[in-house]
Amino acid sequence: MTELQALYRTEADEGTVPSEWRYAGFWMRFWAFIFDMVLVSSLTTVLLIPFNLEIQQMTIIWNITFVGILGLFITYVYFLLMTKITGQTLGKMILGIKVVRADGKPLEWKDLIFREVVGRSIYNSFPIMQLIYLGIGFTSEKQGLHDYFADTRVIFDE
Q1: Which residue in 108, 124, 110, 114 sits closest to 146, CA to CA?
Q2: Pairing between strand 64-65 and 59-61?
Q3: Is the pTM of this model over 0.90?
Q4: Who's near 15: CB < 8 A, 6+ residues apart?
Q5: Which of 88, 115, 125, 136 has the fewest Cβ atoms nearer than 10 Å?
Q6: How many whole angstroms separate alpha carbon 57 and alpha carbon 85?
């Protein structure tokens, strides 16, 4: 176990579900996501400046450029690695919330693939699907569609 993982170990990491989790609602998650997207967009811009030549205009398929695909890859890697290592992205850290499994065990790669890649890809497939995010505010455990896929919750990090 790395020092970073040890720093973020909680009761939930041991496989015991605390009796009273406080679920993070829509607005807390929304602002964490906005912060993360500003950070990832800035990072992507800096990393992809060398590709800002003619290759940026090269369309691969369905109006998607090579640089667009690299940007999407960087975004998914950020969300996957940060959530796997710490249970939080930087936006979630700032707001004091984290992702946990419903059974309280440590997050596994399969959980994260379903949550961060499959679930979020569905949201991004069609603009109307992004309205489903609003459901977070109306479910008892404040889950989004991606949380249902992975059986995860976003809770306040006490």
Answers
A1: 114
A2: antiparallel
A3: no
A4: 103, 104, 105, 106
A5: 125
A6: 35
